[in-house]
């Protein structure tokens, strides 16, 4: 019988050793080592003086065994309990993360709406200075993503870490209302990006620590709906503030915009601390049976355990593993191109304003494209998870984006231009969220590697936002 033993004599854990009696027997039964959670086989092959534990990789014939409370479940009971568990996780994680991400994107991109609420005029900004204020955020955003995700993986406390950084960026966002000069605005925007960088890659890593690969795509789409909804809410909120609060207490509407949204962000962050869990192994509101199942189903999905403890996580080892994997670089190029196409959202109110409507109506007209984007994103991601197919679900929506950009550049007539604007956001982001899920599907373990890859890809892809903002000066309108 072929032996599955690890032949490396430096293997770090103790195994089961064969006595002479066992070596002389024709065959010996399987023995389960509880510490290893690996089935080890005895063999009559006398070329080894001692049997060593099975290799950790599935290719070596390793057979892992479920924990006791999961092992004793019938298939029907397992399916029922897993359904209850996933619903419990969904209700605890998704609503909170969506609202947090909505505020993350709102605080990042409300400068686009603030332009129509008087920011550019009151601070006497040139078009280039305004675009610099938009793009500088992404410099800080890029710098912090990889260190933040590795730190989150190390401490294993997302329930504390993510709300804490949310409080800080809420304070910085509200402080934008105090800006009086171009230099002050630039400094605030840089540090806002630096702190906000922790949230989105942290959320992607957080979700991939709770959901299996077949569940992840739709959950990331649900999360990303927060950013798309923020585009819709931003237009509605700014329109309301501009029409009702401009000049109140001597403040222009754009200052009220930053104050109100910053305060809401801080309040939501404090609430989130009491709702979000950490990782499956350390979550108190799961029963012991649910906790074992939550951990085991991730192990079963990949064939390797996920986050086990902070002592097992290292900063540089995870980064080294990610950077040595060619798949990370391929996905990085893919996501970079997606984000470069999607930078139209950084200045979407300005683009809609070229239709010739007043500021209030222009802000209201930004809402429908984002609503359509939420719908198409949900449907596409749900179908991608159901079928297990990724490539076509990523690429087909891009054809609609190409058509939309061509129409917008080819005509100045109102109806076809607004049709193009309706297709731009769904065309780019419908496939983008499936590509995000593809990262965790492709680079699942170890968790430190996944954390580094998610952050590095997201950081580099957002580098396009630094230069892309300069592609939309007012002088280039309406065709851009």
What would you note in describing this structure?
By secondary structure, the chain is an all-alpha fold. It is built from 20 helices and 2 strands. Strands 1-2 form a two-stranded antiparallel sheet. Strand 1 and strand 2 (38-40) form a beta hairpin. Helix 5 packs parallel to helix 7 (182-196) and helix 8 (199-208) packs antiparallel against helix 9 (213-244). The radius of gyration is 26 Å and the shape is globular. 46% of the residues are buried. The model is unreliable at 1-62 and 305-310 (pLDDT under 50).
Defining key terms:
68% helix, mainly alpha, 20 helices, single chain
Mean pLDDT, rounded to whole units?
79
**Sequence of strands across the biggest β-sheet:** 1-2
Q: Structural class of the helices, strands and pairings?
A: mainly alpha
Tell me the fraction of residues in β-strands, as a range. Answer: under 5%
The rounded distance between the terminal residues' Cα atoms is: 70 Å
Gyration radius (Cα, Å) is: 26 Å
What order do the SSEs take from the amino end to the carboxyl end, as H and E?
HEEHHHHHHHHHHHHHHHHHHH
**Shape call:** globular
Helix content: 55-70%
Q: Profile the largest sheet.
A: 2 strands, antiparallel
Which runs of at least 5 residues are low in confidence (pLDDT < 50)?
1-62, 305-310
Number of helices: 20
- The count of β-strands is 2
Would you kindly provide a brief summary of this structure?
This protein is mainly α and 480 residues long. Helices cover 68% and strands 1% of the residues.
């Amino acid at each position: 019988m072929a032996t599955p033993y690890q032949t490396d004599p430096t293997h770090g854990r103790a195994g089961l050793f064969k006595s002479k009696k066992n070596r002389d027997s024709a065959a010996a039964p399987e023995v389960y080592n509880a510490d290893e959670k690996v089935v080890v086989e005895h063999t009559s092959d006398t070329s080894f003086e001692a049997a060593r534990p099975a290799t950790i990789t599935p290719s070596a014939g390793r057979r892992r065994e479920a924990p006791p409370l999961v092992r004793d479940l019938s298939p029907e009971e397992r399916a029922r309990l897993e359904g209850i568990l996933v619903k419990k996780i969904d209700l605890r994680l998704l609503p909170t993360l969506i609202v947090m991400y909505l505020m993350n994107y709102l605080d990042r991109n409300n400068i686009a709406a603030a332009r129509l609420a008087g920011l550019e005029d009151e601070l006497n900004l040139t078009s280039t200075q305004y675009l610099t204020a938009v793009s500088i955020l992404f410099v800080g955003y890029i710098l912090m993503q990889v260190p933040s995700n590795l730190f989150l993986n190390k401490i294993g406390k997302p329930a504390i870490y993510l709300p804490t950084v949310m409080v800080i960026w809420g304070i910085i966002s509200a402080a934008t209302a105090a800006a009086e000069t171009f230099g002050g605005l630039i400094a605030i925007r840089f540090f806002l990006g630096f702190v906000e960088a922790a949230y989105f890659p942290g959320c992607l890593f957080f979700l991939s620590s709770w959901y299996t690969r077949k569940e992840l795509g739709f959950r990331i789409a649900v999360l990303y709906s927060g950013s798309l909804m923020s585009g819709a809410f931003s237009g509605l909120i700014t329109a309301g503030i501009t029409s009702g609060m401009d000049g109140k207490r001597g403040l222009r509407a754009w200052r009220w915009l930053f104050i109100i949204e910053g305060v809401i962000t801080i309040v939501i962050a404090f609430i989130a601390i009491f709702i979000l869990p950490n990782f499956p192994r350390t979550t108190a509101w799961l029963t012991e049976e649910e906790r074992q199942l939550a951990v085991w189903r991730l192990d079963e999905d990949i064939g390797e355990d996920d986050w086990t403890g902070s002592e097992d996580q290292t900063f540089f080892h995870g980064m080294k593993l990610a950077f040595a994997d060619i798949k990370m670089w391929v996905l990085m190029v893919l996501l970079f191109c997606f984000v470069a196409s999607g930078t139209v959202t950084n200045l979407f109110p300005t683009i809609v304003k070229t239709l010739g409507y007043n500021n209030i109506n222009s802000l209201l007209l930004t809402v429908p494209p984002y609503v359509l984007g939420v719908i198409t994103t949900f449907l596409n991601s749900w179908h991608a998870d159901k079928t297990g197919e990724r490539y076509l679900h990523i690429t087909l929506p891009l054809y609609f984006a190409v058509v939309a950009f061509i129409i917008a550049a080819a005509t100045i007539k109102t109806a076809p231009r607004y049709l193009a604007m309706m297709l731009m956001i769904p065309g780019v982001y419908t496939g983008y969220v499936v590509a995000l899920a593809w990262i965790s599907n492709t680079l699942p373990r170890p968790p430190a590697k996944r954390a580094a890859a998610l952050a590095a890809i997201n950081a580099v892809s957002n580098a396009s936002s630094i230069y892309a903002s300069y592609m939309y000066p007012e002088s280039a309108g309406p065709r851009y």
